[in-house]
Each structure stands twice: as structure tokens, then as C-alpha cells.
Amino acid sequence: MTELILATLVGAMAALLANRNIAVFNDGLRPILPENIEGRMDRRTLALTSFAMSFGLVIGFGIPFSLTAKILLIHSILLGTDMIGLSLPSNRWGNAGAAVVGGIYGAGLSAGLDSIVNIFKMLPVDVLKPLEQVGAPVVVGFMAFPALAVALQFSIKKGIVTFAVSALARQLAVWCNEQKLLTFGQSTVTLNQEGVALITGMIFLIIFAIRQKKPETDGSSPVDLAAIFSERVNRIRKQVVFFMMMGGVIAAAANLLVLAGDPISLQLLSEGNRTDAALAAAARAVGFIPLIASTAIATGVYSPVGFTFIFVAGLLAPNPWLAGILGCVIIFIEVFLLSSVSRFLDRYPGVREAGENIRTAMTRLLEVALLIGGANAANMMAPGLGYFLIGGFYVLNEAAGRPVVRMAIGPIGAIVTGIIANLLVASGLMSPPLMK
């Protein structure tokens, strides 16, 4: 019964955070939320984008892993609550609805997983596995946004250098992982290659920005970084109580083996290796610091699990009560450190000018990444026809004056293609595609 209550609380709170545009779990969604918050993307488009980016991962990734160990992989709950929260209007009634539906969703996952998978297997064309491809290029492509921001603000030459070094850093991380060069005790430390590349690019961007010192010529007071970074970090700080409650509940759930933060620790827990699972979770958390911190500072949207150290606390704590307290404290410290980073950047006037370029760079890269991901997903569902449909949706949208924002074309097109593919197979006009 305790496990069911915890899963319900996690689902309810995570859906509420997503509905209020405070935090989402999908790393690819986090940079998109400011488009809705600042009025450049409507809620319906945001909901469809969330659905396309997360739905396939819930069924094709989160739930299957959960079934192997009878422990819920956190992705299966929080990717679902992203969709639930962002599908409802962000108002008082939407908040309540998201919490209720999210709680029911969490309880439903905890109570039984087999029936959920069986329902989606009934479709003649598998749309779940292909939809995973929609968000696949986002995190990988997103790591290049500092290089584009450098090119836009400083020079294309410096942008190319930043991009090349970021790519090299990513490949070195991959090599270190493959060679298992980093170890901690009996466990191998795995670096998050996208996070390494992203922080490398951010270092270049910050260094170039710090070195760029333009004197004020109009006699006005210097503009601090609050308009670019600090304002968004403060937005996260104001919600710290929500994050602390979320961190406490998740840490307690991890302590009782209701949830696991990643597939590696999940499998170790299924084998009874709690300490090794904690070490694996810690290594993953260290690798994700640059990715989560950078996106949080740039977007004002946090992750409901923070840097994921709350899973380490949950696994190492002697009981769920202490785990919950540690989870609250850890999340508080993380949010506090985000503000410290922002205040540090605020000392350098050259950095503040990067704000618009960062937003522009993120938007452009997301447009390309989501279009590629949508095209790949569509072509898996309808070989040949998928590329045709996505290409047609894109050019027709441009010719119509862009009624749908560019970054939504890939996800929406993939969903429409999945519907069309199932209708064609059902009518006998197309054979079910063979998917590897």
C-alpha cells in the first residue's frame, strides 16, 4: 500500500509541476517550454510536441525496463506526467486536473504494467518504437547550441572552433566509456557524452563573453544578467518548496525500491546489488550535471528529479524517512547552487549579450533536430511515404505563412503519419512495415 501511495504522489506532483511550466523530465522538452511561457507557441502545439517526444519512450523504453525488474523506471512515470501536465491549460482547474490525472496515472503504473503494453500492441502498425526517434536528435543536437551562439555573437571562426572542440570532447567521453577508464571501487563511471559536449561549449561561450568587455557609451547603468539568466533562475528558486517535496517523495520511493533512476541501477537492484546501484546512480548524476544545469539556467525550467542525486540518497539511506529528508535537502542545495552560478555570470557584462543569441541558437537547433527526428519516425512507420509526408507538411506550412511553428512540424507530422499508416494498413492499401 505504501508503494502505491508513493507512486500516486510522484505522478500527481510531477504532473502539477509540468502543468505549471515549472519542471519537465524530458531533456528535449525543457528548451521548448519557454516558447509557450513567452507566448511564441500555443498550448495545443506544446501538448502535441510533448506527446510525440515522450509517448514512444514511455511504452518502448520505460515500461519494458520496468517489467524486467518489477521496479518502475522513473522514465515511465515522469515522461507520462510531462504529457499529462502539458496537455491541460495552465490555470487553477488545469492544476487540479493535472494532479488528479497524474496521480491516477502513477497509481495505474504501480498497480499493473502488462495490460498497458498489450493495448498498444493491438495496432497494425507499431507507432511506439518509431516515435522514440522524434526526440532522439534533440539532446544530441542541442549540445551544439553554444557553438551556434558563439558564431552568432562573436565570429563564425570561433563558432567552428567551439563546435570542433565540443565534438572532440563528446567523442573522448564515448572513448572513456568504451575503454572503462573511469572507475569507482568495483563500478565503472559512465560519462554522459552529450553533457560533456554541452558544458565544453558553454565554457567556450562564457570565456568569450567574459573577455568581451564593451564600455557603456550612453551613461546608463549597466544592465545585469537578471534579464537573461538570473530571472529564469529566480523563477526556479521561487518554486523550491515544490522541488523539495518532489525530491523527498522520490528519494523515499527509491529507498523502498518503488522507483529506479536509470536502467543500469534498475538491473543492479533487481539482482539485489543495492550499493552498486547507488554507485551507478551517482556516476550518472555527475554526468548529467552540465546538461541539466545548463538547460535550467537558460530556460527557467528545472527537472523534477534535479541532478538525480536524490536517487543516490534514497538507495543509501537506512530508511525511507531519512531518505525523504535527504531528498528535500539535496534539491534545495541544487537550486541554491543554480542561483550562485547565475550571480557569478552577472558580474560580467559581456555575458548578458549572449542571451538573445542563446535563445536564437536553441530555437534553430530544435527546429532542425525535431524535423529530422520526425522524418525518421515517420519513415519507420511508412517507408518512403513518411519522408514524403514530412517534407510535404514542412513546405506547405511554409507556403501557408507558417501557421504551425517550425519546431512542431516534425513531431506533429510523425503523429499524423502514424495515423495515416494505420488507416492504410487497415484498408489494405499498405503492408505493415518491417521494423528492426
TrEMBL record:
Q: Which UniProt keywords apply?
A: Membrane, Transmembrane, Transmembrane helix
What protein is this chain from?
Answer: YhfT family protein
Gene source species: Paenactinomyces guangxiensis
Q: Which Pfam families match?
A: YhfT
Q: Transmembrane ranges?
A: 51-73, 93-113, 133-152, 195-211, 240-257, 277-293, 323-345, 365-396, 408-430
